[in-house]
Automatic annotation (TrEMBL):
Name this protein carries in UniProt: Chaperone protein HtpG
Location of region: A: 1-342
Organism: Pseudomonas flexibilis
Domain of life assignment: Bacteria
Coiled-coil zones: 505-532
Classification via Pfam families: HATPase_c_3, HSP90
CDD domains per UniProt: HATPase_Hsp90-like
Region (C): 560-634
GO MF annotations in UniProt: ATP binding; ATP hydrolysis activity; ATP-dependent protein folding chaperone; unfolded protein binding
InterPro entries: HATPase_C_sf, HATPase_dom, Heat_shock_protein_90_CS, HSP90_C, Hsp90_fam, Hsp90_N, Ribosomal_Su5_D2-typ_SF
Role, per record: Molecular chaperone. Has ATPase activity.
Listed NCBIfam families: PRK05218.1
Family listed: Belongs to the heat shock protein 90 family.
Amino acid sequence: MSVETQKETLGFQTEVKQLLHLMIHSLYSNKEIFLRELISNASDAADKLRFEALAKPELLEGGAELKIRVSFDKDAKTLTVEDNGIGLSREDAITHLGTIAKSGTAEFLKNLTGDQKKDSRLIGQFGVGFYSAFIVADKVDVFSRRAGLPAAEGVHWSSKGEGEFEVATVEKAERGTRIVLHLKSGEEEFADGWRLRNIIKKYSDHVALPIELPKEHYGEEKDKPAEPEWETVNRASALWTRPRSEIKDEEYTEFYKHVGHDFEDPLAWSHNKVEGKLEYTSLLYVPGRAPFDLYHREAPKGLKLYVQRVFIMDQADQFLPLYLRFIKGVVDSNDLSLNVSREILQSGPVIDSMKSALTKRALDMLEKLAKDKPEDYKTFWKQFGQVLKEGPAEDFANKEKIAGLLRFSSTHDASGEQSVSLADYLGRLKEGQDKLYFLTGESYGQVKNSPHLEVFRKKGVEVLLLTDRIDEWLMSYLTEFDGKQFVDVARGDLDLGKLDTEEDKKAQEEVAKTKEQLVERLKKVLEAEVAEVRVSHRLTESPAILAIGEQDLGLQMRQILEASGQKVPESKPIFEINPQHPLIEKLDAEADEDRFADLSHILFDQAALAAGDSLKDPAGYVQRLNKLLLELSA
């Protein structure tokens, strides 16, 4: 044992303490995954060394053969995982093993419920693999030296997984990292060669480095060699380089968990080799659960990039558009140079061509999932639907394809689930219907009861109900589908086209003429609140409604802009009245102008509330309503 210097005891970051506690208790039912996590980290360390050595070959220190070794000592009850990858400096050990430098950590911890099954999923997607060692170990020692540093600058990190850890400087001749797990009482199964071999074959067969175990000898003690003989127990070839016909579903699934740092199975994958003008291989996955930082658009995302099987970078975000940031996987190119950098990746014909093809492949994969496994697609939609809705604005070329993948609630489905596709909707169009109707609002409960739907209910016409905050913005880009225009039923002067007969239109004109005087009186009273007053063709049951001007912002967009501190352009709604409603008949007959004004304001405020808007003068509304109630009870 070499002499330790500069020894100090440091406290874990609060978040690490919480995670350690949760991990030890939440993942206990599937504890063998700790070995997959440690091997995965070792594989990443080898990838990083290989990449850095492209520019600095001296980092290989004469040993270019990279491998992972797993050994054990039954008597000492220890398990050791060792790699000769990039290694850690003293600062790296303190930073990477003592803190979690991830944005959204506090938000992530807030989502933990105490339900072991749910929490284990969250912990998995957070990607804190190293700490899983404490599921089976009551003490973990890490001996490491970063490639390029002198032997005297090795580091020894040690902790019992409680509140603190020790770190000291030690002599370490070889670069890389050695992790020694002191197994808890009852965890001796992990100091058994047969058990370890099975775990490695099950979870890490796809790792592209050789994973070696000591060869076991079953003869006399004296027949054992002095030095262990090592044998490779995994396939040790990059999974994506093998023919698809040779790869089992379980192998694809385990590789996803390695590349996606996830504990759950993916919903779908697509493995493809492109040859010809461009040459590259891609393996794309659709996860089953959204990461906690999905809506932090600046959070790291992207595919693992390899060039000619050499790892280049972890999150290359140039190969897929932002609205597909949930897709995980690898891309291995023969057409990029080995010294490629993020700057070089920003643009260029090769990158553009690969991005276009990979985007199409990802969308095809989602189409196939929707067609072949509708229940799995429902899961996907719940997790990633709102992100996919960013697509039509970002990707004009694939707008129609993305639109086909979107799901909505509608008046046709009483469950309120977003399960209606545009193809479903088109299949149910009424005879003569040449428009696609939709209504946006705060919640399903609010929009399904909206007065704007009355005429559509009467005619049996389906309307899409859009309640996500992004929906109004989405529909400003998604203006048509399959050659038919989208129409917001709350906007402008509603034109039902051939759904209205000539008799309907004639009757509407005649009724409107009889109410011209009432419209003028209302305009005068509500002059400050409305842009226009007119007779409505939308209403069958309600007395009045507010419509939005053709070019005005809707309620959702106004609220989004206001919440982000942006100035919202002034606009006034259009007040529409139902000429056949008894309240409107009563209003028309009201001779007292003050009373007429009060009733008009009450009807206007009620229409605003029905539209989901807040009242500009709630006290005035209450006063008028109370006055009316007193009159009625007198």
